[in-house]
Structures
1.
Amino acid sequence: MAICVANYFRKVDIQMKLSKYLAPTLRDVPAEAEISSHQLMLRAGLMRKLASGVYSYLPLGLRALKKVENIVRAGMDSHGAQELLMSALLPKEYYEQSGRWEVFGEDMFRLKDRGSRDFCLGPTHEEIFTDTVKNNIHSYKQLPVTLYQIQTKYRDERRPRFGVIRSREFIMKDAYSFDRDQAGLDASYDNMYKAYCSIFDAMELDYLAVDADSGAMGGSGSQEFMVKSDIGEDTIAYCTCGYCANEEKAQCVAGTPDTAEMKALNKIHTPNSRTIDELVESLNTTAKSFAKTLIYRADDKLVAVMLRGDREVNETKLKNHLGALELELASADDVVRVTGAPVGFAGPVGLKEKITVLADNEVAAMKNFVIGANEGDYHFENANIGRDFEPDFVGDFRNITEGDICPVCGKAEIKTCRGIEVGHIFKLGTKYTEAMNCTVLNENGKDQTLIMGCYGIGVSRCLAAIIEQHSDENGIVWPMSVAPYHVAVVPVNVKDETQSKLAEEIYNELISKGVEAVLDDRDERVGVKFKDADLIGYPLRITVGKKAAEGIVEYKERKSGDMQELTVDDAVAKVLDAVR
Ligand code: ATP
Ligand code: MG
């Protein structure tokens, strides 16, 4: 459905003359910025860095941000969600009730007030919305309800990077639905799915809705909206049959069992061969004939996980299986203690301490493979499950890769691409409503716990993702819906009175017709003005030059580069057409 963006801008569009406008463009690429959207946001004068992962928006950046915000707002409102605004300064008690005061760990910005009471800067607001519903909605007759806010969030990210794609202060739209039953939640979730599609369509993003992990605590369904981009931090697995999932979640099909005869287990001397690559070289074989054993620390327990030599552990699957909050590779000391050998020789046979051994499905299908011997410089060859060791559990613990068979159609080969997560919708269930006792009275006068969905959009991240997908070697190429201004009116020579007068007239006319225009009245060379206009990325440009006296101007589209000489009236009409 079409989105009508509330006309927030008209009133403020009075005089936008660039001679007095704060739009400090930069010629050089700032060294700190690795990706094009970050470079362009700095170069086009949209924002400036204040600290790692903390930015100020300058006027052009703020306008584009507000447009993105308004698209989100319109999409939510038109799907029946109600906007409200919570504080970013939140007392500890709420997060204690859900257990997340602990869980957030170092990601949470914490502070104390003058009375030594603990607060945090909200990283996300499930607890606060749940409490609000608990205190203000009492009857099933008031349901279902979906509430949202567009608000600043704080997360002390371990690795802030890529400008506002991963920052420590960012704008999020977070929404929460409250229903009485699963069917209600399903309907609320589908409604938000549709809202999200309309929102990302309106931003002209090229995106995919992918199946996502719902974490160890369950939740019955979850999808992420991913903007396709090589700089994306997420890997997406997709198939021609329509299946697409985050790598974290994508299921791997178990391989066909190898039917070879078992050979005798044999200890082999493998000096200086700790890594799979070194072993492949020294034994003159392929990584597929190894089963590597990795030791992890999951909360306070050590576990071993076995995978084929060329595979990668999927830590999300591992974490979910173990129900662990924290998961990391075990320290060298732990490995030495558990295996009795230096790092690089771990295996399932003859561990010195009894720890849980998990094997990936693929390992369970292998025969006569090489494993570490839990002894420095030694491996076993011809190891076999059932005869030489028995894992405690066999399951899916690896990352999907290109060429794997699709888990849904079972036929085609999976392909992968990278994506930037701009939104997430999640059937949360009763995790918070139970912990915080959020109930309503049902028709029998009994308390009934509500079922929640939660729905996030990274508003500031969207702004960067739009630029990531809409730019060229000269700068930003804004979609009309989010451009800070629709059109730049550029007199070639401001000292020429005919030119500057006509330019000002056109500019005033455009504004009077509701077009968001700037007038580049700076006394600069025209080359500089053109470069800035391209860099900032106004979708349209009207240049007033030598033919001003004849009432002829040049009309140019940023995206196609098409340029035409037109009469003033035709140029204005074309702008109106393009903007509407
Ligand atoms: P990520 O995996 O990227 O850290 P997340 O799973 O922590 O994201 P949610 O908690 O679901 O994210 O937040 C909702 C949305 O907020 C995300 O889809 C993303 O677009 C945005 N977001 C999350 N963290 C950041 C951040 N540090 N900077 C900017 N946007 C963010
Ligand atoms: Mg995160």
Note: Residues 1-6 have pLDDT under 50 and may be disordered.
2.
Amino acid sequence: MNIGIICYPTFGGSGVVASELGLALAERGHQVHFFSSARPFRLPGFKENLYFHEVPVVQYSLFEHTPYTLTLASTLYEAIDLHKLDVMHAHYAIPHAASAFLAKQMGNGKPPIVTTLHGTDITLVGSHPAYLPVVKFTIDQSDEVTAVSKYLADETRDVIGVKREIQVIPNFVDGDFYNRKRCTIRRSIFAPEGEPLIIHISNFRPVKRIGEMMEAFIKVRKQVKCRMLLVGDGPERARAEKDAQAGGVIGDVFFLGNQTAIVDLLSISDVYFLPSNSESFGLSALEAMACEVPVVAARAGGIPEVVADGECGYLTEPDNTEEMAARILELITDRELNRRMGKAGRARAMQLFPTERVVSQYESLYRKLTA
Ligand code: GMT
């Protein structure tokens, strides 16, 4: 099949999932065309069967904001004919489902559209009154709609008022790539005295609860000498730096910025910490589980569908920093418990979320639409 994938290029779960899906489909012999304003960071320079189309961001003095939705629709419309697209797959509803809809209308109703909902396109941005009508309309107009968790499918019905069928196709992880490695990064760089390492990876937006995260870490640090690795960047990073300074732990927190060596960093870590107050899935937690890192996360959104409480980590009440700190302390002081939960996380990730099975689910969906 000739498959068009539309996604964001920036650091963020939906772009990662779209990229990994495209790579796996190309591996299976499909012709995969990516459409984005820049090359998604998870896509390699060259891969057989995989093509990247840069969507122009055209500035004009009259525009205060560039109408990217339209240049994307034009780019898609031209590709429909030129590359004989059999299906267009929009990752993250805003504005990708709208652009795909427009292109399909221009293309006389072809090809079919699959829209995958990822999270904030429904829970935060999509539910904003300024976006809601167009989000609902474009979801209704898509030929197939998928959500990455049952929680998100339910939210789409409850919050957006969508009545149509939404198939749950979870996110996935490549267990060969996401695998606990023998240290390629020297652990002693961060933990010269063998201190336990707690890691968090995100785009540091308010939903990630960075303030609460630092509060919990300060409580843990008061009990046990430990260190924290913060990977990623975003609006809440400066606050985290200030909180770490004020809490007297700035010397114990490493702000590493955006990184590609995620597996290496996870492989030297003891606990993955995800205190978000809303998370449709929590792909980073799944990646940590695949690398045998026990997770401490808030019991929020779709996280309980991914992290089994008491089996591969612990779920806590959102915002309860006492409970979060207590759970982290348990995991960094009891080596046997840590190892057991790490192994259980790997087993769960490979049993429920392996790439092969999930990619086949998307492939079946495309085949059904193009039959
Ligand atoms: O909202 C974001 O964090 C961005 C979004 C994305 O598009 O990158 O992440 C969402 O999609 C990921 C991939 O499906 C999920 O693993 C994240 O849980 C989800 N984020 C939220 O729901 C906050």
Note: Residues 229 and 254 are 5 Å apart (CA to CA).
